[in-house]
Amino acid sequence: MAKGDKINFSTPSGFPEFLPSEKRLELYLLDTIRRVFESYGFTPIETPAVERLEVLQAKGNQGDNIIYGIDPILPPNRQAEKDKSGETGSEARALKFDQTVPLAAYIARHLNELTFPFARYQMDVVFRGERAKDGRFRQFRQCDIDVVARRELSLLYDAQMPAIIAEIFEAINIGNFIIRINNRKVLTGFFKSVGIAENQIKSCISVVDTLEKVGQNKVKQDLEKEGISAEQAEKIIEFIKIDGSVDEVLDKLKHLANNLPETEQLSLGVTELETVITGVRNLGVAENRFCIDLSIARGLDYYTGTVYETTLLGHEALGSICSGGRYEELVGVFLGEKMPGVGISIGLTRLISRLLKAGILSTLAATPAQVMVVNMQDDLMPTYLKVSQQLRQAGINVITNFDKRPLGKQFQLADKQGIQFCVIIGSEEAAANKSSLKNLKTGEQVEVLLENLAEEVKRRLT
Fold first, then answer.
1. Longest C-alpha distance within the chain, in Å?
2. CA dist 59 → 53, 302, 389 (Å)
């Protein structure tokens, strides 16, 4: 770069940068999510941000617009040596674009060190080279949980997922939401029963998965474009529109399974769905928090059983705020054995962005400090430092103002950062072992003995 050239220091498109108040909100949500995950026995892991490219493409090529490749930028002398020697470097590497494929590689690498079923959570940043737009990022944090077993995995793990989702979203108080549950075997079984060919089922599921985005008429048109007859398309639309209470939908599904031809897979899916619903109820999830929605397909190929999507009622345009499902072959891809799993994912960065924009969440104060000890005179700094430490030892977050400035300016500084209380100690207060405690929200100011200050602040904070 030539001397005097201007450096473009703007944030790269699609890579978020948080102000303190936004980052504090993210950390609060992460702590809340982590607490719920761990209450169900999930254990944390961390996988590298960089994986071998062949690992990331193990479940299919994601395309050049998805995976970010990694290639070191060498100094000129080393690059020249590398070119001269013909050295190609180590195997191709790339940034991980989700947590699931790295989980599969992690299990393969540590198979003999893990206990199964293996229940893990991971809340890492992932990278996707897709076009950045409002609410979609190239770098974002995902909060994932998965339970993986060898050979068999109880459907009660599927039932746990809605309980975990409900607990998280109730804890962060985002309003009314509904967890929509389905089973891919129900969909594929129904498609078979109305004569849809095996090689058309995958495309049918992909089309059905677009229902909320494109509407019923477009879905019907797209099904017919896939070679589905108008009569079959109409039956599919009628099927995915089945609604009612959970028990009513289950009864309708059982009736179809008993009266349609070739319903072995449909019957299996209904049985699995009923088992999961029973488990959800036994876990105490409120009836208004979940439903059966036969339009939920989760277009990803690897889902084989239970699938979930969570919708914020009144804000349906936000789309799913937590989704996932059961898979059979994905994790065992590196080991060549069946390793069934079930998991959910919260795209936290995207969720925060959308909820803030919709006014559902608010950022936190810019600082975690609850109290500012103001600087009335520099010669009392030893007292200010001692009082600050006493408050911290009592579990109170404190900023000590080291800079001498007018008292009103110090109050403004505290208020701008969202600090509620200021401790004021001048020469008279120090001589009497007292302080003034000012509540910046109400304007109230009271005199407090220094020995009682921590107790008084804690009482007023609650």
1. 92
2. 11, 9, 55
